[in-house]
Amino acid sequence: MNYKWRKLRNKFFIISLSLAAAICLTPLILVTSFILQKGASSLDLNFFTQLPAPVGDVGGGMMHAILGTIYMVALGSLIAVPLGIIGGIYLSEFGKGGISKSLRIATDVMTGIPSIIIGIFAYILLVVPFKTFSALSGAFALSLIILPVVIRSSEEILKLVPNHIREAGLALGLPRWKVILFIIVRGNLSALFTGVMLAVARASGETAPLLFTAFGNMYLSSSPMEPMASLPVQIYTYAISPFEDWQRQSWAGAFVLIMLVIGVNLGARAILNPSAIKEFFKRS
Amino acid sequence: MSLSSEELRTEIIKMSALVEKILALALDRRVSLDEIFAIENEVNQYHKSIDDDVFKYIALKTPIARDLRMALSVMKINAELERMADQAVSITHWGVKVKGQYPLINTMTTEVLQMVKSAIDAFVEADVRKATDVIQRDQNINDLNREVIKVFLGRMQTGEITFEEGFSVIRVAKNLERIGDLTTNIAEDVIFLVSGDDIRHGKGESIAQKYLKGEEV
Amino acid sequence: MSESDNVLEVKNLNAWFGNFHAVKNVSNNYSRKSITAIIGPSGCGKSTYLRCLNRIHEEVPGARLSGEALLLGQNIFAPNVDPVELRRHIGMVFQKPNPFPALSIFDNVVIGLKLQGEKRKDVLMEAAQKCLKKAALWDEVKEKLQKQGTSLSGGQQQRLCIARALAVNPPVLLMDEPTSALDPIASAKIEELMQTLKEEYTVIVVTHNMQQAARVADFTSFLMLGELIEHGPSEVIFTNPKKTKTEDYITGRFG
Questions:
Q1: What are the pLDDT digits (tens) for A202-211?
Q2: Distance between alpha carbon C166 and the CA centroid of its chain, in Å?
Q3: Which of C100, C103, C160, C177 to probe the A interface (max A CBs under 10 A)?
Q4: Which of A244, B41, B59, C204 could form a disulfide with C239 if both were Cys (CB 3.0 to 4.6 A apart)?
């Protein structure tokens, strides 16, 4: 009698957990498929190769925004990633003093700051003195978003390295910095890279900080001191416009953006664990 | 640490060669006492060093199964070989006083020397059949010893031989009989070493029979 | 044993973790081409003692030591001695086999040499071959030197770590429970290896396996609660130890 009830309760538990998991997946699936549906129809080669058509006209593409996102994310990463990894190394290898405690708190706070406030900060720092919106300020804002994530992920990854590996390096008669650089960091490059990729993926989707730093541009710009278009901002601009064609294009843009983010995420995981990917394909 | 089962075995074999030598010399009355004592001294050195080696071997290597049986057998055979050497010295002591040649003694001598060789061969070759053969043949030695006592008591009573002569002969026979017992002990140790069976005190005959017939025990 | 036979002389070594006095006034000598085992109950300070000898102990925050240790006549705890330099003369193998991640077998063996500045490929190759042979691993890996160090089995990984430690050619090799993470067959191989190593190096092994100490070591030290209770040739310690505490421990009468 007891046994039957227990089995029943077990089953019930499993079913409700599976349901909960499915519910969690639903938003992602819904959003992606919705955007796919709406956006895929507007996707054509033009989208990737042309600049926007004159206002009101049909046609044109978002090449400038795609390139702009890539440019600013790359520039922001260039600033933030080396700093972030070094910060992560410091926290993991020397992480006991007062500086480390402050750094950790600061990092945690930064990850929680609303991105629009980061945008305002970059505005005050780089837009106002130079009296111009610029790609540079946009990249700077993005770097402030990337930095704390890279610091924390690098620290966590390096903390996973067991201490006796460090000791083994020291025991060979190597100075601490060589042990850190050439054994610890070098031995975990792919994991660190994944952490960086995840931060980059997040930054590429940020809209608010770019609103009043890079501001946006209808033309392709190549100078860092000029305003530059980016996918999120362009999507926003088109979406609130009255033009149907622009709205269609913003769906396409949303689709491309989501694909970019998902792609970078999956790519980062594939690099970290290529065997798991092979398994996945073998089984299916 | 170079202590090993093989080394212990080698040491015992060297010691047994010495004991065979001292026995042969003891029964050859032309050999001097000094020579006998020199070999007995060597045997005693082996006696101490082998025991010490076995002790260290067991403490340091914690042997089990075959290796443990080898260590224990070596220790026992060590003691038995040393006693054989003692018996050899005793034979020399009494043999000096024996003037005549007696076929009974000669038979016993030949038989005992062969048994000693067989027992040691049985150890070297780890041959259970040879070992059981030795155990069986001990019966002959015991019989021969009883015979010697009977015959020589008689001869002493009739005055055929002097009391000193007769007594010495009986002592020599006793020593030989004792050596026979010791070879039996060695043979039992060999059976223990090879098969793990303890055939002492009674089970001996029946198990020995089975070994001789080649049966499973 | 004459003075000149001692490769390492430890005098009055004390070690602390903060306020905890882990090693109390231990003195001992280690002679050329020998293996010394250090045994004792858990937490008795034997690993701490070992880690003082190559000054890894100091790398732990809050840890300190005092005393002298003369390596071929020079005090390695002197303030002007560089611990990094010292560790090239006293190598260490750890309990858990720890080949460096994402490095090949070959790279693992030579990394000590490489990072000390040796760049010539032929020198590195020769060193790798020599040390892998000394560690009884060469035959098993000579066809796959480029494979990951972590692709080897546990016992092979430990031998790789031994080869790696030998590559920088230290006269003294410290081993901290080198076989506790290994299965019996792999352990036996390492023990066999230790016997050959002692023909060239001075080996000091910490082990919680007394039988291993008895099998392998020429000398055994018994530590308890940070103190050196007894030290002597293994054949004395395991047949007739002088101190009751030693005998109680090795016969399993406590702890």
A1: 898 888 999 8
A2: 11
A3: C100
A4: B59
